[in-house]
Write a structure and sequence with these properties.
The chain is 47% helix and 12% strand. It is of the alpha+beta class. It has two domains: 40-169 and 203-256 and 320-410, no CATH class; 412-489, no CATH class. The longest helix is centred in the last third of the chain and has 40 residues, at 346-385.
């Protein structure tokens, strides 16, 4: 019997030691991972426990941290841009030809509604500013809440109200029936579709006892947040993972500045030469900073200066290391976040810009699909009911839904090289003028209309010599630029 037990143990020992890939099934790693404690991984439990605290920390960093302020500025500048995300109407006939007058009527009405007196129920922000505030709120709080207000006095019949996310109580959960429940102050049906939102009253948004809620139907709310987990009902701040490093960097800089301040004041100490019980510390005359050069050293004491050499060479590499981790968590480049262009050449700057701009494009597409398109659908319906769009009737609602939002684009470090590349692609037939114009952040039809109008004006004024611009391509110069690029790499 004992012999059978020994034989049975051998395969078990061989299995536990044969192959590195088997170790995750055994306890060999447990001693190494014992200090790794994990909590409940449910997103609902994480939101209930950490949401409020994380949002408040994020808001504090926005108020106090230069790098967080810089990140939000980069989002506003690169995602929204100075002109906002522009609407282009695309109504076309059966042959695909655009109906210019109808499209211009929609775009003109939309631009008029973008004024702060129409789009903002409070009359404080125009629509470009509102887009910037909404995006910043999502990045700071993890979510933004926009309520659509039906306003009969508004010529378009609709305006927007930005709601403080703290009014959506994360702790309010209630089972209403078998087919509906309230989770994190949002009422869902049995399929998880939002039905209504429960907002705290303005005076109770601080989370006092005896809370009272205002129920608002979901079709009046646009709830913006980026979903990271299946079943997620609320958003978490985009800077959540970087908050720890931000706090570390703040403490480190505060300590370094405090130490430098103390060192600059020339602190000194009195050291007793030998044990003399008769000397009393009260007998030591006080020494003022302005009279350091005329001080008197007490008997049996010697002067010992305190000269700290910190901060020294460690502060810059430590700051860079922390900022690189923060930049990675935020999805942007280090040199953009830190405004540090040292040791950067054309090639590395361009590669970093490509990665960073892909991140901005991803946010732009999300912002358009999650906010602007649903808003446009509601706006169009209301504007047509109020007859606020010329040359368009309510029966053409479905056709007018065909629009495109053009987000901003960026110039490159060396525009001449990029234009030369576009020209070569166009000559090779691997791209079109439409693609190039859209890449530059403009609408092709608008550009072609402007070119046609400009040519007509030049002909009218007898400036036909300007109709055929001279070619800008210089083969010799292109070779020089290529050599410069090679040197940069």
């Amino acid at each position: 019997m004992a012999k059978k037990q020994r034989i049975a143990k051998k395969p078990q020992q061989i299995t536990s030691r044969s192959g590195y890939h088997k170790r995750y099934l055994t306890s060999e790693w447990e001693s190494f991972l014992n200090g790794w404690f994990v909590s409940d991984s449910s997103i609902d439990s994480v939101l209930a426990k950490y949401h409020t605290k994380t949002v408040r920390r994020s808001r504090e960093q926005h108020r106090k941290n230069d790098y967080v302020k810089r990140y939000f500025q980069l989002l506003q500048t690169n995602v929204i841009g100075p002109d906002g995300i522009v609407l282009h109407a695309l109504i076309a006939d059966k042959k695909g030809k655009r109906k210019t007058k109808k499209n211009e009527s929609i775009e003109r009405a939309w631009r008029k509604w973008m004024r702060k007196s129409y789009c903002d129920i409070q009359g404080k922000l125009d629509f470009v500013q509102m887009q910037q505030v909404i995006l910043t709120t999502v990045a700071q709080d993890g979510e933004a809440i926009i309520r659509l207000i039906r306003d009969k006095e508004n010529p378009f019949g609709i305006a927007l109200q930005l709601i403080n996310t703290e009014r959506l109580d994360v702790d309010y959960n209630k089972r209403l029936s078998d087919k509906s429940q309230i989770k994190n102050s949002i009422e869902f049906n049995q399929y998880g579709k939002p039905i209504a939102y429960y907002f705290l009253n303005q005076e109770e948004s601080t989370g006092q006892n005896g809370k009272k809620y205002q129920r608002v139907k979901a079709d009046e709310i646009i709830h913006l947040y980026r979903t990271d987990f299946a079943g997620q009902n609320r958003g978490m701040p985009w800077i959540a993972t970087a908050l720890f490093r931000m706090r570390m960097l703040d403490d480190y800089h505060d300590a370094a500045i405090g130490n430098a301040n103390v060192t600059a004041k020339k602190i000194f100490v009195f050291k007793k030469k030998f044990n003399d019980n008769q000397v009393n510390a009260k007998d030591i005359p006080p020494v003022q900073e302005e009279s350091i050069g005329h001080m008197v050293i007490p008997d049996n004491y010697e002067f010992t200066p305190f000269d700290s050499q910190y901060p020294n060479g460690e502060i810059e590499p430590f700051t860079k290391a922390i900022l690189r981790g923060i930049a990675s968590g935020l999805g942007i480049s280090y040199h953009s976040l830190a405004s540090d262009l040292t040791s950067v050449n054309y090639s590395s700057l361009r590669q970093g810009a490509i990665d960073e701009r892909d991140t901005y494009r991803t946010i732009q597409n999300w912002f358009i699909n999650a906010f602007l398109i649903p808003l446009y659908e509601k706006w169009l319906e209301s504007a047509l009911l109020f007859e606020a769009v010329q040359n368009l009737t309510l029966s053409e609602y479905e056709q007018a839904l065909c629009v495109r939002f053009q987000a901003r684009r960026w110039q490159w470090v060396d525009p001449a090289k990029e234009m030369t590349a576009y020209e070569k692609k166009l000559n090779l037939g691997v791209t079109t003028r439409d693609d190039i114009i859209r890449e530059l952040g403009r609408d092709p039809e608008h550009v072609f209309n402007q070119l046609q109008h400009e040519n007509e004006q030049l002909t009218e004024y007898g400036l036909t010599s300007l109709l055929s611009p001279s070619p800008t391509t210089n083969p010799a110069k292109d070779v020089i630029n290529d050599d410069e690029t090679k040197r940069d790499t």
